[in-house]
């Protein structure tokens, strides 16, 4: 083993934050002499970065372990991420798993890979979550025309359905200096777009070791990043409505780099349910945030997270949420079905919603999401927009996204890859993607 290059394969479940952290772990292992291969290849080591937002994510982890064992029965399987922190012993009982690393250990993975022989008993290194009080910056590169840049980790909120604080610890942030340094490193690799990620990025600025004082604000970070000339576009990923301030919305509307795209978790449109969830806003504040964005950026894309089937959500209360979203001028939804999670308050709440009913409500909102997206795309037809083209060639077509997150396609042209072009939005095709033609101004260049 020592005389040949060791190979490692990665599989990431869950959020953009996980993707950024997997990329950082991959770079660390490359520095330790590992060569990255595809997950379907026979590798010496398989690293699975897990999520645990829903029960389904746990089941998915088992499936991925089996896939690794198919690719190489002798492969050394390492599980990291939120599921690994929350339920290390449960993972340790899975056939094929050799090593489980918690929140504090995952970034030092190379130190745990001295002996890559399969283990009869799974080794677990998982700290108490209180020990995850330090910050490790990370960003993902290499597989897209955009990079996910982590600026914050952990959460101090106490939402009654959520295990993230148990899995990732207290809210803590990178320094402004290091975020800017990482942004410039990303730009040096030719990447044109950055997506800012974290667990609760609007809470940006809290230092390490449980320091609750904000050294900086999220708005100050946005102002500093806007000065990074080498990056063409910056997107703000999911941000809590109570932390998305007017000053940030106004700044984005006039910014050179921040694009008119916001993703704002709602979770419920009913105030009674929002209070039971221990969210830090009510529906009126949410409506205010959406109205403010629409006022200064009429063409902005606004995405919404919503949970269906929370305990106590009667049909009447669900329809309040449905109607609230239906009347909101938003662009798409991410719909989550509530699932019971150990060690959360909500697991003991009364008014459990039947699983079949949860699925029905999920489907209703997914259909509403498609209608919202279609209406948003329709409203953009006839406009001229900047598109960043991606690498994929699918049946002679290539795809990209406008600044306000409309997915578009044109005939594949290798010279377009990772380039921005002015395009005219022409029509929505049967796949729900907007067909475009290159704008005359672009052709005249």
UniProtKB/TrEMBL annotation:
Reaction catalysed by this enzyme: N(6)-L-threonylcarbamoyladenosine(37) in tRNA + (sulfur carrier)-SH + AH2 + 2 S-adenosyl-L-methionine = 2-methylsulfanyl-N(6)-L-threonylcarbamoyladenosine(37) in tRNA + (sulfur carrier)-H + 5'-deoxyadenosine + L-methionine + A + S-adenosyl-L-homocysteine + 2 H(+)
Keyword ATP-binding on entry: no
Keyword flag 4Fe-4S: yes
Domain MTTase N-terminal: 6-118
EC number(s) reported in the record: 2.8.4.5
Top-rank taxon: Bacteria
Ranges where the Radical SAM core domain occurs: 141-378
Function: Catalyzes the methylthiolation of N6-threonylcarbamoyladenosine (t(6)A), leading to the formation of 2-methylthio-N6-threonylcarbamoyladenosine (ms(2)t(6)A) at position 37 in tRNAs that read codons beginning with adenine.
Family per record: Belongs to the methylthiotransferase family. MtaB subfamily.
Protein's recorded name: Threonylcarbamoyladenosine tRNA methylthiotransferase MtaB
The organism's taxonomic lineage, starting at the top: Bacteria, Pseudomonadati, Bacteroidota, Flavobacteriia, Flavobacteriales
């Amino acid at each position: 083993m020592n005389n040949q290059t060791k190979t490692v394969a990665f599989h990431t479940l869950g959020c953009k934050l996980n993707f950024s952290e997997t990329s950082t772990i991959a770079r660390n292992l490359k520095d330790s002499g590992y060569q990255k291969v595809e997950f379907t290849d026979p590798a010496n080591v398989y690293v699975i970065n897990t999520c645990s937002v829903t029960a389904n994510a746990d089941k998915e982890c088992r499936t991925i372990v089996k896939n690794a064992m198919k690719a190489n029965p002798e492969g050394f399987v390492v599980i990291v991420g939120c599921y690994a922190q929350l339920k290390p012993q449960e993972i340790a009982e899975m056939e094929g798993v050799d090593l489980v690393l918690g929140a504090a250990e995952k970034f030092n993975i190379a130190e745990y890979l001295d002996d890559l022989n399969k283990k009869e008993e799974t080794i677990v290194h998982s700290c108490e979550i209180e020990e995850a009080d330090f910050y490790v910056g990370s960003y993902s590169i290499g597989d897209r025309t955009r990079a996910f840049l982590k600026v914050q980790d952990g959460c101090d909120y106490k939402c009654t359905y959520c295990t993230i604080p148990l899995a990732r610890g207290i809210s803590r942030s990178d320094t402004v200096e290091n975020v800017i340094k990482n942004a410039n490193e990303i730009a040096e690799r030719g990447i044109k777009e950055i997506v800012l990620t974290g667990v609760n990025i609007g809470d940006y600025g809290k230092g390490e070791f449980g320091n609750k004082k904000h050294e900086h604000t999220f708005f100050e970070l946005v102002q500093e990043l806007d000065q990074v000339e080498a990056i063409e576009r910056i997107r703000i990923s999911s941000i809590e409505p109570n932390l998305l301030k007017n000053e940030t919305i106004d700044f984005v509307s006039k910014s050179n780099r921040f694009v008119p795209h916001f993703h704002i978790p709602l979770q419920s449109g009913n105030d009674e349910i929002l209070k039971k969830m221990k969210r830090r806003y009510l529906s009126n504040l949410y409506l205010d945030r959406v109205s403010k964005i629409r006022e200064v950026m009429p063409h902005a894309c606004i995405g919404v997270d919503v949970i269906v089937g929370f305990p106590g959500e009667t049909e009447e209360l669900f329809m309040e949420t449905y109607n609230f979203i239906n009347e909101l001028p938003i662009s798409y939804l991410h719909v989550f079905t509530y699932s019971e999670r150990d060690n959360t308050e909500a697991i003991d709440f009364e008014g459990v919603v039947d699983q079949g009913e949860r699925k029905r409500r999920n489907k209703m909102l997914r259909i509403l999401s498609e209608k919202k997206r279609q209406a948003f795309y329709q409203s953009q037809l006839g406009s001229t927009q900047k598109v960043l083209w991606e690498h994929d060639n699918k049946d002679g077509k290539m795809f990209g996204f406008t600044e306000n997150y409309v997915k578009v396609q044109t005939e594949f042209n290798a010279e377009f890859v990772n380039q921005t072009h002015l395009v005219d939005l022409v029509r929505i095709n049967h796949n729900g993607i907007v067909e475009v033609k290159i704008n005359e101004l672009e052709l005249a260049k």
